[in-house]
Amino acid sequence: MPSASKRPRTLIVTIDGPGGVGKSTVAKLLARELSVMYLDTGATYRALAYAALEERLSPVTDVKPLARLARRLPLHLARAEGGSLRVRLDGRDVSRDIRSERISEAAAQVSQHALVRAAMVALQRRLAKRQRVVVEGRDTGSVVFPRAPFKFFLTAAAGVRAARRQQELAKLYGTQPPLREVREQLQFRDELDRSRRVGPLVKPRGAVTIDTTRRTARQVVRAMLSHIRS
Ligand code: DC
Question: Does any ligand 1 atom lie closer than 6 A to the CB of residue 141?
């Protein structure tokens, strides 16, 4: 790494890709290696979905109230010990609750609405403002930070993605849903992500694709660092 005085004042690295390709693990590691902030845009949609369900809004039909909620979402993201992300809503720690399957489904639904996405993109840009940041999600290199100097697009085989998501759920909740179920849910949400009209999941222009099927997170980060440093 260059010395602190030589480090550029702004640095944005975007990492996009579907669920289960290892974006979060890789983004956290890379942020730590670069000593920069980590921004998980999926967590912002999950927090919105959580707040929406608490307010008894429909994630499918209450588009205007959802967008209003997104504009005033009292969200705070911080790095917890061990590098994981702490998500606070109005001061309450919801880091674990927002990872449930119920919230996964609601987050996929709220993120379909153009009005909601506009508010969320503004929120994500505010969170990253004047920061050096590794940001991950579905549209971070295409919509949120289209001018980012370093963009990556991660892919992996469907079976591997499902197994990773299954492990993540087991770690969080101690129970392991059947692989077939996890795979179907991933497939369904992929379809939603790829087919929406605003901010769909695409490989951003200028992004480097990395297939993580047979690579460990550390190997992926090493490949990213060598690209960034070159
Ligand atoms: O990455 P994740 O599973 O935590 O994302 C949760 C949901 O949010 C997922 O359904 C896709 C959506 N999302 C999005 O639409 N745009 C982003 N930049 C990040 C996530």
Answer: no
CA pair distance 14, 135, nearest whole angstrom: 5
Tokens standing for residue 51: 């707040």
Query: Which residue's CA is the closest to the ligand 1 atom numbered 14?
Result: 138
pLDDT in tens, 119-137: 999 999 999 988 899 999 9
Alpha helices in 88-216 (DSSP H): 101-110, 114-128, 158-173, 179-195
Q: Which residue is associated with the tokens 């001061």? A: 91
CB 139 near ligand 1, within 6 Å: yes
Q: How far is the CA of 19 from the centre of ligand 1 (A)?
A: 8
Stretches in the chain below the pLDDT threshold 70 = 1-8
CB 208 within 8 A of CB 151: yes
Helices (H), strands (E): how many in the chain? 8, 8
166 and 176 Cβ atoms separated by less than 8 Å: yes
Here the tokens at position 90 are 């109005």
Residue 108 near ligand 1, beta carbon < 6 Å: yes
Give yes or no for residue 45 CB within 6 A of ligand 1. Answer: yes
Does 18 contact ligand 1 (Cβ within 6 A)? no
